[in-house]
Specification:
Strand content of chain B: over 45%
Largest sheet of chain A: 7 strands, mixed
Radius of gyration of chain A: 13 Å
Distance between the termini of chain A: 36 Å
Radius of gyration of chain B: 14 Å
Largest sheet of chain B: 7 strands, mixed
Order of helices and strands of chain B: EEEEEEEEEEE
Shape of chain A: globular
Order of helices and strands of chain A: EEEEEEEEEEE
Oligomer: heterodimer
Structural class of chain B: mainly beta
Number of strands of chain B: 11
Chain lengths: 107, 123
């Protein structure tokens, strides 16, 4: 299986901050990288697929970049509803794998 | 409208076999490119992909769990069943089923998820 490593595992930020989360794959996955948001007690929701394509309804303050093995999720001007845990996931192969998550807390 | 729902026991004893069923509607596992998978999440911990079955009968398993897993599909019932043997307290967590698509050569993320079922392993 392709291993996905996220950093940091958690961070504290304030409303209005810019937040960056990184994800590294154990081998090249081209641009087949997705980002999910999970709030407490809920199923994950996909925000971005194909590295940088926002799903319908996802605010434009979310953006993704990268290729190969290194990827980034950026949240510009963090909003109260953005405090959650974020996961990357590779969809390069038929066996998808997730990163270990980044929890975004209120500072 | 696409829905998925997990069902099964919420409490199992150590060494027992867990059988979970994902019942879905709004799509078919006979359609090219469709897959249904299981993802689990121990309390307070990360998501872990467990297994997937595809429209073409291809079965995929997490390497770390593979010896204990079997995933099957019943297309007539629109169900996917996961069996996990030799359950351990470390397997306690919420188990989700979710849909995945392949289209024009691109694998997409899990786009629809069930609500999840909390399974506790305890004697």
């Amino acid at each position: 299986d392709i291993q996905m490593t996220q950093s940091p595992s958690s961070l504290s930020a304030s409303v209005g901050d810019r937040v960056t989360i990184t994800c590294r794959a154990s081998q090249s996955i081209s641009n087949y990288l997705n980002w999910y948001q999970q709030k407490s007690g809920e199923a994950p929701k996909v925000l971005i697929h194909g590295t940088s394509t926002l799903l319908s309804g996802v605010p434009s303050r979310f953006s993704g970049s990268g290729s190969g093995t290194d990827f980034t999720l950026t949240i510009n001007s963090l909003q109260p509803e953005d405090f959650a845990t974020y996961y990357c996931q590779q969809s390069y192969s038929r066996s998808p794998t997730f990163g270990q998550g980044t929890r975004v807390d209120i500072k | 409208q696409i829905t998925l729902k997990e069902s099964g026991p919420m409490l199992v004893k150590p060494t027992q076999t867990l059988t979970l069923t994902c019942s879905f509607s709004g799509f078919s596992l006979t359609t090219t490119g469709v897959g249904v998978g299981w993802i689990r999440q121990p309390p307070g911990k990360a998501l872990e992909w467990v297994a997937l079955i595809y429209w073409d009968d291809d079965e995929r398993y997490s390497q770390s769990l593979r010896p204990r897993l079997t995933i099957t599909k019943d297309t007539s019932k629109s169900q996917v069943v996961l069996r996990m043997t030799n359950m351990d307290p470390a397997d306690t967590g919420t188990y989700y089923c979710a849909r995945r698509l392949r289209d024009a050569g691109i694998w997409y993320p899990f786009d629809y998820w069930g609500q999840g079922i909390l399974v506790t392993v305890s004697s």
